[in-house]
Amino acid sequence: MIYLKDVSYVRLGSPDLESAEAFATACLGLQIAERGKKKLYFRSDDRAHTLCYSEGDAGNQTVGFEVEDDASLQVAASTLEALGHAVHAGTAEEAEQRKVKAFIGFYDPTGNHIELVVRPERSGPRYFASRDAGITGFSHVGLNSTNLLRDERFWTQVCNARVSDRIGDISLMRVNAIHHTIALLPAPNAGIQHINHQVGSSDDVLRSHYFLNEKRVPIVFGPGRHPTSGARFLYFKGPDGMVFEYSVGVGEIENDETHRPRQFGFEPASFCMWGAKPAG
Ligand SMILES: O=C/C=C/C(C(=O)O)=C(/O)C(=O)O
Ligand SMILES: [Fe+2]
């Protein structure tokens, strides 16, 4: 079993780092942590970085998850290899680029590039962004899935994810007390479907709605409220078509042992209880 503790970071390729930096700082509200060689590191909480843009193809997308220690990483590597996944053992230089002690990389059954990391760095000074979006931290990712049932099995049976809720066969899965850290959404190919940052209050969600509209950032869904986690949300489009979400109030699962996934119908009201509809 692979024991995921939390999501750690997202790495995105972008052919235009200048636009990516402008969006991440002036629109999304992240703090630039470091400018590397053709790399930009951003903070959203007390971690040294939670998002890294590198110059390159926008199809290069990676999600990093934290595991407990080196022993857990070894178990993860052998578990994946036994199942036929090619596993890349990160070099010291690659680990340094990710600000982690060690990591491995592999592809999930859909083909999403995943990294498992040990000891991601924290940062002493607190996160302080130039735009006050009210971000309290990087919280979850939506992952494309070409086969929801197969991929739910991978994340819950090979890894320790537990299903909190389902909308049709879409699954919202937790790896700790937070309602979900991974959402699996149907898509024809691999990719990150959205990147979530939590904000402090509903005011922050609504304030950003006006702010982003003014900046001509395409709003793709919301403001609204998910009946699943209870979160108030806003989804909008960033560079290279990547969708970002702000949300507040994602609930926690009180009793991990006794919680049974709730089944919601695959219908608009299951995505937003206020009646918001996705754009387009
Ligand atoms: O697809 C439904 C989305 C649900 C939630 C939620 O319950 O908070 C998300 O954040 C999400 O997966 O985007
Ligand atoms: Fe989300």
From TrEMBL:
One Pfam family it belongs to: Glyoxalase
Domain VOC: 6-119, 137-249
Listed InterPro entries: Glyas_Bleomycin-R_OHBP_Dase, Glyas_Fos-R_dOase_dom, VOC_core
SUPFAM superfamilies: Glyoxalase/Bleomycin resistance protein/Dihydroxybiphenyl dioxygenase (SSF54593)
Highest taxon in the source lineage: Bacteria
Record protein name field: VOC family protein
